Amino acid sequence: MEPLQCGTSPIVGFRFSLHPMTGDFIQVIKGALRETDTTNVWMHTDDVSTVIRGRQLHVFNAAKSIALHAAKTGVHVAMSGTFSVGCPGDSAGDAYLDKGDELLNTDTSKQYVSSQFALYPMNNPDYMAIIYREVERAKALGVYNDSMHYASGIHGDIHDVFAFYEEAFANARTSENAHLVMTVALSINSPSHGGGSGA
Amino acid sequence: MEPLQCGTSPIVGFRFSLHPMTGDFIQVIKGALRETDTTNVWMHTDDVSTVIRGRQLHVFNAAKSIALHAAKTGVHVAMSGTFSVGCPGDSAGDAYLDKGDELLNTDTSKQYVSSQFALYPMNNPDYMAIIYREVERAKALGVYNDSMHYASGIHGDIHDVFAFYEEAFANARTSENAHLVMTVALSINSPSHGGGSGA
């Protein structure tokens, strides 16, 4: 039996799947991974998803870069995944906590993203207040799109969207309630975009 | 400001995205929705995802049918989403709680699915014990595939996989801790399947 404790490590993880809606999906996925510098994160891919782990800034930087490079193909791509912190399960990848502050992926190309997210602060009686606070922050930043069941819509340029997600993820956890989960679903180059709620 | 209370409704929801890895993704999605009888669930689609809500048995039945019908095209398809209960936000779809017990989608075609899931019992100090208990249940049922960061691998025939998910979702909540979230990521017809951990 594994230990039933969480919240012992500052390592951030993102388990995600990248879905290019094309028969050439393998080329798009491999290209996006190849064009992203992932040397600051621990990475492992299985038959369903990929996980990257490391310091928060490098995990978000690599995630954004992978999405951006897949988007540049022009293909309709989706990225769905879960950011987690505070429940590492084991210590694989902890060595990456020694990486410095320099971001390795600095492409600032503009790219519209429509997305949805949900925050799950674990074992925290005040979790609903935290969620509403971060949604209000999205409104103030101009990236809020829509309210909906079980999630909130966030859209705009990919750099603004990921900046909000990283900030929300940092703000929604405390040292007392260190286990935090955030799900995101991003849609890029979709024929449904441009009219808000659509098909 | 919306109320900060959860756990007041038995309505179950599933917000998901279906991703066929083909340029004909729209046809695959529309076909899967058309071939699924969704009259027992409330459904709404926006530019990123679709949500279905209703009684637990009908939500899981419709979700499985949508995945199965998409799979029958032979295309590599992924379904990712979040099952939620206990925090409806509002009452849209509550009328569907009056639906009977008869399942409307009864196709028993076999289909291999490799998937990953995570349980998030909210505001519950015992949540890690609940998660481990459900993972042990998967092992006993023969659908457990692998352990990994932030998730557990579940695979097998689609009917066995969904039966496990529905059972885990039912078991992981109590009347005192009614707000429960479960994320799932399914991969079907993938070239990476067949060898466990792959590309």
Automatic annotation (TrEMBL), chains A, B:
<dbReference type="InterPro" id="IPR011522">
    <property type="entry name" value="Thiamin/HMP-bd_put_YkoF"/>
</dbReference>
<feature type="domain" description="Thiamin/hydroxymethyl pyrimidine-binding YkoF putative">
    <location>
        <begin position="114"/>
        <end position="192"/>
    </location>
</feature>
<dbReference type="InterPro" id="IPR015835">
    <property type="entry name" value="HMP/thiamine-bd"/>
</dbReference>
<dbReference type="InterPro" id="IPR029756">
    <property type="entry name" value="MTH1187/YkoF-like"/>
</dbReference>
<protein>
    <recommendedName>
        <fullName>Thiamin/hydroxymethyl pyrimidine-binding YkoF putative domain-containing protein</fullName>
    </recommendedName>
</protein>
<feature type="domain" description="Thiamin/hydroxymethyl pyrimidine-binding YkoF putative">
    <location>
        <begin position="11"/>
        <end position="90"/>
    </location>
</feature>
<feature type="binding site">
    <location>
        <position position="18"/>
    </location>
    <ligand>
        <name>thiamine</name>
    </ligand>
</feature>
<dbReference type="Pfam" id="PF07615">
    <property type="entry name" value="Ykof"/>
</dbReference>
<dbReference type="GO" id="GO:0030975">
    <property type="term" value="F:thiamine binding"/>
</dbReference>
<feature type="binding site">
    <location>
        <position position="50"/>
    </location>
    <ligand>
        <name>thiamine</name>
    </ligand>
</feature>
